[in-house]
Amino acid sequence: MRELTLMLVLAAAAAAQTVTLANRQIELTIAERGATLVNLVLLDDAEKLSPLWNPAVPTGRASDGAAGHFICVDGFGPGSAEERAAGLPGHGEAHLQLWQIDRPAKDGTTGVITFHTHLPLVQENLTRTLRLVDGENVIYVESALESEVGFDRPIAWAEHTTVGSPFLQSGVTLSSISGSRAQNRPYQGTGGNGMNRRLASGQNFTWPLAPGLDGKLIDLTAPPPDAHYMDHAAILVDPALTLGWIATVNTAKHLVIGYIFKREEFPWVQNWGSYPATGNFARGLELSTQPYDEPRREAVAKNGMFGAPTFRWLPAKSTIHSSFLLFYAHTPDGFGKVESVRLDHGQIVIEDGAHKRITLAASLPL
Question: Which one of 187, 202, 240, 251 is most buried, by most CB atoms within 10 A?
Fold first, then answer.
């Protein structure tokens, strides 16, 4: 019996396809629109709880078109006035395109799905391949961005991953980042939607202790217990690391979702938290070429921050690549805030503050 399942499912309401990539441990659903990762579950989890945010489904069971994890290429945040007038959408074109899906295949013990799309406004081609190995809790994602124009250009690229309720809860769900220097996003006014700011505007800090409006330090690891806040900060991935990581643990459900990525491709993680009084939380943990979701003109004008680049070059008539690992697994009783994640000789080793350790097989290279 083949362990890995590959299915094409017609989502009638959205008139778009989804692809399900699964083995006996884990199941990932990817939408044709945007090649967005919309649902992620463990098959032995009775609740089938997905950590990925879906604002349309309070139960957390995502569907086609949910926020989940989408790709921001070529653009992260709003465009300039001229870009908007030319029709360039916020976060770039890729997340709105209907991607071509190659026929899912099985290569030995590895399931493979490849997506392709053309981005007409920026004249780029984007290819994305996802792999899942039998017996593993790891999704391997590789992307290639090709320029059709004859000049070098600065580009914006972000992997916009968002976790949400019910996986995301106050006092229960703890997010860790391999961060170092950081900055509260400069702002004016409130956070909107009836939520208040609690972080001091534009202040630098060392992750995860951010200066609050009252001058006290706020640990951004967990959502606030008195929820009615909007948080926003940029975190520089520790320059001492070759591979950066993010890990979010739900200590009540004994689940952990995380990412491992190349720091040279994504030197920044943008952290934003929407924590309304309703308890319907969303938290973005976004791997990026730039510290904030802002027009490329502003990112390029920064010409670096904290000694790190704030954009990436796409050379003329050339192709650049990125890759990351996504893992989702059970945690043992008492497993708490993640303190380290490393990829070591075909294994992902996740360790908490009490030195409890989880080891996951990860047989493919990053």
Answer: 251
